[in-house]
Write a structure and sequence with these properties.
Elements (H helix, E strand, L loop, with lengths): L1 E4 L2 E5 L12 H54 L5 E4 L4 E4 L1 H6 L4 H4 L3 E3 H8 L5 H13 L7 E8 L5 E8 L1
Helix pairs in contact: 4-5
Length: 171
């Protein structure tokens, strides 16, 4: 009897007897039902193993990502750089701890780890560069191109009134 799931044949169930015509129609039906259940159990075991492998791969990827983020944070700190992320869809800047150091402020003073693009420009972008920065964010928010990229160099004024050049890259 075939052990099959859908169009896939997984194997066969071989039932034998030393007696001729040992299996009547009812026995054959019972054996076929048993073969179907065995096939389903084998397929479930295969799918479970695949799900476990996918989970292991995902956990490994998450661990690698966390390690890479920690290494990036260390490198940025050593280089006295910071990483800011701008989410175009929500018009939100996300700042890392080093960004607060560079801007001579704290999350408490800023009101959290995020600012809207407009608020970031108003608070930190040097007045002569604000128009360019606002245009960059406006263009990004209006594009429908999933591969859209843009970049601008602008000056920011920190809370100690010092100017710094930054590159804003939108992807």
């Amino acid at each position: 009897m075939p052990l099959s799931v859908g169009d896939r044949v997984l194997g066969a169930l071989d039932v034998q007897s030393t007696e001729p015509r040992a299996f009547d129609e009812t026995a054959v039906t019972v054996l076929q039902n048993m073969a179907d259940q065995i096939a389903i159990a084998l397929e479930n075991a295969r799918l479970f193993e695949r799900a476990q492998a996918t989970l292991r791969d995902s956990q490994t990827a998450q661990a690698n990502l966390a390690r890479n983020q920690a290494q990036l944070a260390d490198a940025l700190k050593i280089a006295n750089l910071s990483y800011w992320e701008y989410d175009v869809a929500s018009d939100t800047f996300h700042f890392d701890a080093q960004a607060f150091v560079m801007l001579h402020t704290t999350p408490q003073q800023l009101g959290g780890h995020t600012l809207t693009g407009r608020e970031f420009v108003r608070r930190f972008v040097y007045s002569e560069d604000q128009r360019q920065a606002r245009q960059l964010f406006r263009d990004a928010s209006r594009t429908t191109d999933p591969l859209y990229t843009a970049q601008a160099e602008v000056r920011v004024r920190d809370m100690a009134d010092q100017l710094h050049w930054i590159v804003i890259r939108l992807r």
